[in-house]
Write a structure and sequence with these properties.
Its EC number is 2.8.2.-. Keywords: Carbohydrate metabolism, Glycoprotein, Golgi apparatus, Membrane, Signal-anchor, Transferase, Transmembrane, Transmembrane helix. The chain is mainly alpha-helical and 165 residues long. The protein is built from eight helices and two strands; from the N terminus they run H-E-H-H-H-E-H-H-H-H.
């Protein structure tokens, strides 16, 4: 985008037409992850502040959307997929496959060296861990989480999410 807009400029300080032109000039990539897996990751990073996963989930539900951490806040409220037209949406757990499609389209050389991804191992581990932690939740908590993440579950395809059941 033209030099007059420094990269550190906050979008909120620019007028709407400038924001639209700036955003339109970029290739926009959105990385998404099953909301329940994001919640597990946030729990694992904060182990010690909550005695159990169920208590952590209850804290998240009690806090609600207004004061939610970006670690577990619904993606739709963070990335605004209805307003920003993303060029690519990549799903966590399929990064090797998805990046293989994205990189040539982004004009990067075919022989670029990517880090090793252990997608299948990551998927299996999260699947097992998700089932274990999900079983700790009450029916009410499961329903409340499904409601809390309803827009993410509608906007993105998470075919194996325990919350979409």
């Amino acid at each position: 985008y033209p030099q007059q807009h420094a990269p550190q400029a906050q979008l909120g300080k620019l007028n709407l037409s400038t924001i639209e032109a700036m955003i339109g000039s970029y290739t926009k990539v959105l990385f998404v992850r099953d909301p329940f897996q994001r919640l597990i990751s946030a729990y694992m990073q904060s182990m010690g502040s909550s005695s159990s996963f169920s208590s952590f989930v209850q804290e998240v539900l009690d806090i609600g959307l207004r004061d939610a951490s970006t670690a577990w806040k619904p993606l739709v409220s963070l990335c605004l997929p209805c307003l920003v037209q993303y060029d690519y949406v990549l799903m966590f757990g399929f990064l090797r496959q998805e990046l293989g499609h994205l990189l040539p389209r982004a004009g990067l050389p075919a022989d670029i060296r990517l880090p090793e991804f252990s997608d299948s191992q990551v998927l299996w581990t999260y699947s097992w861990l998700s089932e274990q932690l999900f079983s700790e939740l009450s029916l009410q908590q499961k329903l409340q989480l499904s409601q809390f993440y309803r827009w993410d579950l509608s906007a993105f395809h998470f075919p194996h999410s325990l919350l979409s059941g």
